[in-house]
Amino acid sequence: MLKKWSESRAPAGRVAYVNGRYVPFARAGVHVEDRALQLGDGIYEVAGVKNGAPSDEDGHLDRMERSLGELGMPMPMSRAALKIVMREMIARNKIPEGYLYIQTTRGAVKRDHVPPADGPRPTLIMTMRAIDTAGLAQRLEQGIGVSSQPDIRWGRCDIKTVQLLPNLLAKQAARKAGAFEAWLVDKDGFVTEGASTNAWIVAQDGTVITRDLSTAILPGVTRKIMLQAIAEAQIKVVERKFTVAEAKAAKEAFLSSATGAGVPVVTIDGDPIGDGRPGPLTRRIRELYAAKSGDKKA
């Protein structure tokens, strides 16, 4: 007899938060007419959890508030209340080192492209998962490969929406090509960012380069802290566009996200970067980030 998904795959003991209630992960759900489900009308955040507390918490909440504002949606509750729920989620899930996912949608209402003027009550969802420490350690030690893929996303990539279909298609194509991540390339041949990361290279003269902020990329919270740490260490850093060819000719390359700061990129489309091994500046930048953010495991 086949088991239901909730019986066979839901992690034991995990707790989700949905609209004011802490519920067993396997029983968590939203209304069938929730606008994120029907129309992709919602945003999300992913915060790392280190030593039982959210990492870069205010940075993530700042970006969450901005994303909601760009979509004309209110915060689901005050920032102080959100912080209480986030900590309660960490405590209930008993995950001192992991990732906390926060999703806010415009809520459940009769399906229509234009929501009612007064708007439904926003939906707020939080879930958690533990860090794959072995997998992350391997990526940091050995580096990863990336595959260049066309950037077919919409024109407001600076908003962290739940509309991730182009991203997952790029990820799937990258994995099929034997790479860990996809680097998205715009119509002019410039790398925008990874499918779920920000992209960085180190030029032959040691200059660190990453794409400048615009509507073409997500303003990464980890990216922001890394830029500050690099500048404070008096390492030359430039925010500008770069091509795949320039990346392949770079001395080093790496990526950043809430799930990994300074993860070395050792191949692009199968071509080695530098000597094909994680570089010393990437390691140094990861250490600088760890010192600045308090993340001793970065």
Q: In summary, what is this structure?
A:
This protein has 298 residues and is of the alpha+beta class.
Main attributes?
nine-stranded mixed sheet; 298 residues; six-stranded antiparallel sheet; 31% helix; D-amino Acid Aminotransferase, Chain A, domain 2; disordered N terminus; 2 domains; alpha+beta; 9 helices; D-amino Acid Aminotransferase, Chain A, domain 1
Query: Quick one: how many beta strands?
Result: 15
Largest sheet: number of strands, sense, barrel closure: 9 strands, mixed
Oligomer: single chain
Distance between the termini: 44 Å
Estimated structural class: alpha+beta
What is the number of independent domains? 2
Give a topology summary:
Elements: H1 5-8, E1 15-18, E2 21-24, H2 35-39, E3 42-50, E4 53-54, H3 57-70, H4 79-93, E5 98-105, E6 123-130, H5 133-142, E7 144-150, H6 165-176, E8 181-185, E9 191-194, E10 198-202, E11 208-210, H7 221-232, E12 237-239, H8 244-248, E13 252-257, E14 260-268, E15 271-272, H9 280-293
Parallel strand pairs: 7-8, 7-14, 11-12
Antiparallel strand pairs: 1-2, 1-6, 3-4, 3-5, 5-6, 8-9, 10-11, 10-13, 13-14, 14-15
Helix pairs in contact: 7-9
